[in-house]
């Protein structure tokens, strides 16, 4: 029995580089039979076009093409639709993940501005004490970035920066992407086999 089937997750994709992370995450959740509510910022759509080569002229169509064939169902919410279901605390979701999370979005969440659907939905997760995971992808970091991260971490937000590891012997960019997505799933206690765990190698470094 699939314990994840029918559970609801919110996935946000912002204009930070690394849109493939959010796409891979959504694919993994959908493959488990989860209901995924997608919200993508305008800058996020631009990065998707630049980095993945998607034709984003027909947003609904391109999402159907990439997410329509999975076990679970997805729902797309435009970034300006502040009346969407995920903007309300009465809407029940297991967690929200913003992957990748731009510094602008992170700052808006840290300061409670709720100026679009993505930041409003994140604010809802905070006020309802539900899991919120942010995957910042920026370097270097200045003091304001770090202060905003610390503020949110103290509120219980899970910070998982896009810092791939190499101990599992990645052979491709896809391996590095899978590792990051796997770390997010680990944090949410969702089982997966996206990377080889430490201790699962037949030999450890130096042996």
From TrEMBL:
Domain Flavoprotein: 7-188
Top enzyme class: transferase
Its job: Flavin prenyltransferase that catalyzes the synthesis of the prenylated FMN cofactor (prenyl-FMN) for 4-hydroxy-3-polyprenylbenzoic acid decarboxylase UbiD. The prenyltransferase is metal-independent and links a dimethylallyl moiety from dimethylallyl monophosphate (DMAP) to the flavin N5 and C6 atoms of FMN.
UniProt cross-references to Pfam families, sorted A to Z: Flavoprotein (PF02441)
Catalytic activity: dimethylallyl phosphate + FMNH2 = prenylated FMNH2 + phosphate
Keywords on record: Flavoprotein, FMN, Prenyltransferase, Transferase
E.C. numbers: 2.5.1.129
Organism this protein belongs to: Paenibacillus haidiansis
Entry's Gene Ontology molecular function annotations: flavin prenyltransferase activity
Gene3D superfamilies given in the database record: Flavin prenyltransferase-like
Ligand binding (dimethylallyl phosphate): 167, 183
Gene from which the chain derives: ubiX
Family note: Belongs to the UbiX/PAD1 family.
InterPro entries: Flavin_trans-like, Flavoprotein, UbiX-like
Keyword Mitochondrion annotated: no
Positions with a binding annotation for FMN: 15-17, 41, 102-105, 137
PANTHER family: FLAVIN PRENYLTRANSFERASE, FLAVIN PRENYLTRANSFERASE PAD1, MITOCHONDRIAL
Name this protein carries in UniProt: Flavin prenyltransferase UbiX
